[in-house]
Amino acid sequence: MDWIASDFLLFIAIGFVGQLFDGALGMGFGVISYTVLTSLGIPYTVVSASVNGAKIFTGAVSGAAHIRHKNVDWGMFRLLAAGGAVGGVLGVAMLTQVSGDIIRPIIAIYLTFVGFYIILRAFRAVTSHVSKKRTAGIGAAGGFLEATAGVWGPLVTSNMIASGSQPRYAVGTANLAEFVVALVVSLMLIPHIGIENFSKAVIGLLIGAFMAAPVAARFARQLRARTLMIGVGLMVIVTSLYRLINLYF
């Protein structure tokens, strides 16, 4: 796929912007990267493998830090990781078996709702109270959406906090579980896209993410979290609606 080599700088730029928001908000890398890459016409299998491949490395670093600071609830982690792995496998199966003509509008519609969801979170806490017994179900839903739309944190972390988990443990545990899910999804998709294409895209995203890391803290101090979240949500909504319009008009 020649476009991966020729657009290597684009992957760096997308990784930079995604990490800029993620470092300031604690989410955004996946949804921004996935939305922009799919809007460029890059195959969903390549996008999912690339985004999740980058998350393996960023998730490992983040997860290790949370373990060091004792922010991981290991019982919650096992449920989220196991459920997420199952959901990720199902998501990969859909990506590789279902026609792209069917997947494109479904994901565009879903990402539109994700955009509204992010904006909603900017103004108030989400109140979808979920018991801890449904933790595995939350993980499975998050794993499926991680594979098909690059989304984990907005769904999993928010619902774990809404279920009554302390934010410290919800964030730390969800970050570590995402590493496991990203690893499962990437390993399943590599045979479909080839290791060379996978590595080029991932390296580009990672370079951009690492470049943005020291800037994100200053970015967060200068702009309110609400402003950043509204910006991410609007970008996702506009991009997804634009893709839907192109599909049907």
A few lines on this structure:
With 249 residues, the chain is mainly alpha-helical. The chain has helices at 2-6, 8-25, 29-39, 44-68, 74-97, 100-123, 135-149, 153-162, 167-193, 195-222, 225-248. Helix 3 (29-39) packs antiparallel against helix 4, helix 4 crosses helix 7 (135-149) and helix 7 packs antiparallel against helix 8.
Can you describe what's shown?
It is built from 11 helices and no strands. The relative contact order is 0.22. With 249 residues, it is an all-alpha fold. The longest helix is centred in the C-terminal third of the chain and has 28 residues, at 195-222. It has one domain (2-248). It starts with a helix and ends with a helix. α8 packs antiparallel against α9 (167-193).
